[in-house]
Fold:
Amino acid sequence: ERRSARWVGYVSVPDVSATQHQVLSQGGKVLVSARSFPKRGDLAVFADREGAVFGVMSSSSGDVEDFLTETGDWIWAQFFSRQGDMAAKFYASIAGSTVLEAPKPDGSKRWFLVSQGYARASIIEIPRNHTDTGPGWLGYIRVADAASTIVLARQLGGRVLVPPRPDLFDGKVALIADPNGGVFGVLQWDAVETGGGK
Structure:
């Protein structure tokens, strides 16, 4: 069986070893145990109770200040879970976040992880009838134009899994698999929509 590439997102934590104990105590697994890298910091990679992979890091240079992501940078993280309430509590405890329940307009379950006044990630419960969708994190890159980005992705050997369409964020979001199978989202986010700045 050929395995696809995957992107792994990292959560900033103050103490990687303590977080490793916390993950294990909550039913997670260690994939890469806590280790230090010179001039970078400490990191580890885990799988949660649903098998979803994520990393944690304590950077030796500290966290950057909050800012509106530039085009071409990661802008959002979304977790798809079969047990959304449990996942929201798990990741909130790992990241030191507050959970804000925010059902989607269609009534499906959704939670935001919030810290320091900012929404950091969202958790969406996978509908029971979507048996082909497994739990996992999906990162989004900010792009200037979603439609032209998918054209470029195809030219570069990627596959468009979900093209921009009016019912998904007004056609400003798409899902792409890179040539190695790594899946990520692109999000056209206009600064004027957020009021600019932070």
